[in-house]
Structure formats: structure tokens, C-alpha cells
Write a structure and sequence with these properties.
The chain is 25% helix and 23% strand. It is built from three helices and four strands. It has a four-stranded mixed sheet. The longest helix has 16 residues. It is elongated and about 90 Å long.
């Protein structure tokens, strides 16, 4: 036979008081927020029922609908975030401009992408690019 256990929730400011009753016993607890209160109620139900099959009815203000509405609203509501600060046009945010970085300095490549020092030394930055060869046959005299 399936027994019914009742979990009753009462809000006390930001905390919730939980009373779980059934099998001629009653357990109480407190939790910060309705989601934590629901989790704590599940723990109390396990203590009370053990391995027996149970049906748990969660009540807020004597109503399962009120509990379900409050619980689902809490589960589906995004956390409150501080407002996004938008910098004025043309300004650069502080976190993108390190104080020690130079404007014309190239970013450091990871070691796997760096050329060996011998190759870097052979590069001549002032050397002109080789002239393009003409594919037209040279005139013979």
C-alpha cells in the first residue's frame, strides 16, 4: 500500500520552514529559499518513509497548486545580475588596454607556432622583395 506524506512550507522572510508529516511522525527543518526547502523536504521524506513506497504532497498555504507555482517560478527565473555598463562611443574599456602593452608590439605566439631562432635570424626585415621574373623568352641576337 502506498502511504501519503505531506510536506508543508511556510515562508519566513527569505527562509522557509518545512514540516514533513506521515506514518504518525513529524519532522521539521529550515532552508534558505524554496528550492533548497524542496530538496530538504525530500531528505526528510527519506528519513520518515525509509524504503516504503510513498506519495508526497507539497503544500504552500494549504494548496499544492500554490506550491507548484512558487517552486516552478523560482526554478525558471534567471538570477538577478548587475546592470550592464555600456561605455560611451569611441572609448576603449579598461580591461582591454593593459598598461604595459605597446600599440605596435606584436602579440606573443605560443611556442608551437614560433619559428626556430636560426630562421628568425635569417629573416632580413630591410631586404627588398625579389623582382618578379618575366616569363617572356629573352631575345637572342
Amino acid at each position: 500500500m502506498v502511504e501519503t506524506i505531506t510536506a508543508t512550507y511556510v515562508q519566513d522572510d527569505a527562509d522557509w520552514a518545512i514540516t514533513v508529516s506521515g506514518r504518525d511522525k513529524e519532522l521539521t527543518a529550515r532552508a534558505p529559499g524554496i528550492i533548497a526547502a524542496r530538496d530538504r523536504a525530500d531528505q526528510l521524506v527519506e528519513e520518515l518513509a525509509g524504503d516504503a513506497k510513498t506519495t508526497v504532497v507539497h503544500l504552500l498555504n494549504g494548496s499544492a497548486l500554490d506550491f507548484t507555482s512558487a517552486y516552478m517560478t523560482a526554478r525558471l527565473t534567471l538570477p538577478k545580475l548587475p546592470p550592464l555598463e555600456v561605455p560611451p562611443p569611441g572609448s576603449v574599456p579598461k580591461q582591454q588596454t593593459p598598461a604595459s602593452a605597446s600599440v605596435d608590439k606584436k602579440p606573443q605566439l605560443p611556442p608551437s607556432k614560433q619559428l626556430p631562432k636560426a630562421v628568425e635570424d635569417r629573416k632580413s626585415p630591410a631586404a627588398p622583395a625579389p623582382a618578379a621574373e618575366s616569363k617572356a623568352p629573352a631575345k637572342q641576337a
